């Protein structure tokens, strides 16, 4: 069809796209909008579980730290967090799984174990942990990082590695420390702990330390629980038993350190004007950790149940680590560089030197 318009001829047959456009608009008006996707924890949690299974398989076959593998796999899957359907599951894994993992960790500690350490070694252990904690804060200041990065690095190094880091991060909050900085701190802590497990028994042997000295050095300075115990038994059976007691005593101090840290830095929501009793209120998972330690001290828990609880704690913490890494922004990791590694390195060095000095003094 042709029509004359302002002296020009328009061939409408050569413009089929106009009809197609109006047809698409008409169909869009007739088609009902898609139903909203129901938000559940399944999507994000399922991806974390698959990543955790991959990390466990790689760790078992290549003898690599499972937490570090979980972090690396989680970082490589950070694109998943762009899908809103994954958010609820990732939040559940990074918060609820973390807290349940910390609670189950209490089944590995009893008050009798802490008492068997003796007053002098226990006082030395507190002094080492305090020096390590402060070294992390000083290292953060020297590296131009926030004090919260130093608290995280010092606390993770002083207590029990990734478990302590996750618990402290729950107190610090993502409002004051980004998940990217938290993730790279976890990576450095895991690497430092793996290196310590390999090097410290060799150093202790070259220094001709006794079993008790080596056990104290390894138990007081290696970050992760399993790696501290493994490093102790790599030296000798007796050193491994003593390193276990020393390390579990550090784990028992997780709750007091978290409490003191929470009181010192206040709430992430800025509730500085809240009544004292509210500011002293403890997170529920720390109270539950205390309760589990108390029950474990009063009742003899069967060894298979304790082993299952330890495996469950590791699994839950692994899920939390992976979810946190997946929510991290890799562009911020590139911006921060290796600066977050400085507090961890300084805290690790101070922890080793102080532990060695006290091990020689306690001979």
The profile of the biggest β sheet is: 2 strands, antiparallel
Number of helices: 18
Strand tally, please? Answer: 2
What form results from the Cα inertia axes?
globular
Oligomer: single chain
Question: Segments where pLDDT lies below 50 for 5+ residues?
Answer: none
The helix/strand class is: mainly alpha
- Please bin the fraction of helical residues: over 70%
Percent of residues in beta strands: under 5%
Mean of pLDDT: 82
Q: What is the gyration radius calculated from CA atoms? A: 27 Å
Gap between N and C termini, in Å?
105 Å
Q: How would you concisely characterize the structure shown here?
A:
By secondary structure, the protein is mainly α. Helix content is 74%, strand content 2%. It has a two-stranded antiparallel ribbon.
């Amino acid at each position: 069809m042709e029509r004359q318009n302002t002296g020009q001829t328009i061939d409408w047959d050569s413009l089929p796209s106009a009809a197609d456009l109006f047809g698409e608009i008409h169909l869009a008006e007739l088609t009902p909008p898609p139903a909203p996707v129901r938000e559940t924890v399944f999507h994000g949690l399922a991806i974390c579980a698959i990543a955790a299974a991959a990390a466990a398989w790689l760790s078992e076959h290549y003898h690599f730290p499972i937490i570090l593998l979980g972090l690396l796999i989680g970082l490589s899957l950070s694109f998943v967090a762009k899908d809103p359907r994954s958010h609820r599951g990732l939040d559940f894994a990074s918060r609820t799984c973390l807290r349940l993992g910390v609670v189950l960790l209490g089944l590995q500690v009893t008050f009798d174990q802490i008492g068997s350490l003796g007053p002098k070694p226990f006082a030395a252990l507190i002094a080492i942990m305090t020096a390590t904690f402060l070294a992390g804060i000083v290292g953060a200041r020297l590296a131009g990082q926030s004090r919260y990065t130093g608290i995280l690095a010092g606390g993770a190094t002083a207590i029990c590695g990734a478990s302590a880091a996750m618990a402290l991060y729950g107190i610090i909050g993502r409002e004051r420390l980004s998940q990217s900085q938290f993730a790279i701190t976890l990576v450095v802590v895991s690497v430092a702990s793996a290196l310590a497990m390999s090097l410290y028994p060799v150093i202790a042997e070259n220094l001709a330390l006794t079993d008790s000295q080596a056990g104290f050095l390894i138990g007081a300075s290696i970050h992760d629980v399993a790696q501290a115990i493994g490093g102790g038994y790599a030296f000798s059976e007796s050193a491994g038993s003593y390193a276990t007691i020393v390390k579990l005593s550090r784990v028992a101090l997780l709750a007091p350190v978290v409490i003191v840290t929470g009181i010192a830095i206040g709430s992430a929501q800025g509730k500085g004007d809240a009544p004292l009793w509210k500011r002293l209120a403890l997170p529920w998972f720390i109270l539950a950790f205390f309760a589990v330690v108390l029950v474990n001290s009063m009742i003899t828990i069967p060894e298979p149940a304790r082993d299952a609880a330890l495996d469950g704690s590791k699994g839950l913490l692994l899920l939390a680590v992976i979810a946190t890494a997946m929510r991290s922004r890799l562009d911020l990791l590139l911006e921060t560089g290796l600066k977050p590694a400085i507090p961890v390195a300084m805290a690790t060095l101070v922890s080793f030197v102080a532990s060695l000095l006290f091990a020689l003094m306690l001979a």
